[in-house]
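Continuing the batch. This is chain 6 of the set; chains 1 through 5 are on the previous pages. Same settings as before, nothing changed between runs. Recording input and output for traceability.
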Amino acid sequence: MDLGIRGRKAIVNGGSAGMGRSAVLSLAREGVECWVSARGEERLVEACRAIEQETGVPVHPIATDHSTDAGRELILAACPAPDILVGTCSPPPMTPDYKAIEEADWRSAIDISLLSPVAFMRAVVPGMAARGWGRVVNIATVAAKYPGEIRALSGSTRAALANYAVAVSKVEARHGVIINTLLPGMHHSAFVEKQFNERAAAKGITYDEEVAQFCRDWRIASEKFGDCDDVGDWVAMFCSAQANYITGQSLVIDGGATNSVF
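Output for chain 6:
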C-alpha cells in the first residue's frame, strides 16, 4: 500500500539502532528523506549508509545529543522544516528498587525522554501547522500506561510526554498536524539484547532462555519479544496520508503483556 508520503522530509531522533533505526528504514522505504540523530557516530553513519543503500533515498546522519540545546540546534539547522518528527531514545536502565533511583537519574531521564521531545515539538509543530500538514510520532514505552517499579524512570517521564502530546494534538489537528504515541513493550533492541545477555550470563543460561523466562514471569501472551521492525512499520503508518483522522492516540505494542478493554 502506498502511504502517500513520498518526498516528505523527516527528523528521526535516536535512530541509529533499535526501534529508531527501524523507523528510519520504514520511512525511507516509503520515499521519505530522513535526517537521523544519535550520539554514537560510527553506528549512526553505518546505519544511515545501509538504509540509504537499500532504499535509494537520502538518509543524513547527525552525530549529536538531541537532549542538549546544542544538539537540537544542530539537528534543526540541518532540517529546519520537517514534515515528520519521530522521537525516541535509549531507555533508562531498569529500576528493580525505586528507592535506589538517584536525583541525577531523574534529571537525565527527564532531559532525554521528556524535555527533548517537547522542545522538538515546540520547534517544528508550528511550521507544520502553517504548511497545513505534519506528523509527529513519539516512541515511548508501555510503562507509560501500565506503571511498574521496574520501569519507574522510563514510564513516568514518558507518561508525561504522552499527556503533552495528546494535549497538543487537540490544538493542531485542525491544521492537518497529526500527533500520536507508540507504547512498545519488550522488543529485541540493542538495549534489550545487551541487558538480557548480561542477565543470562549471570545465571549461566542463554539469551533465549532468559527471554523465555521473562515472558513467563510477565505473562506475555505471545510468549516472545517483538521485532523492532514491527514498531518501525507502525511509525510509518502513523505518518501516512491514511492516518489523517487518527490523532491523540497512544498505541500499545506489547504482544499481549497487558490487559485492557480499551
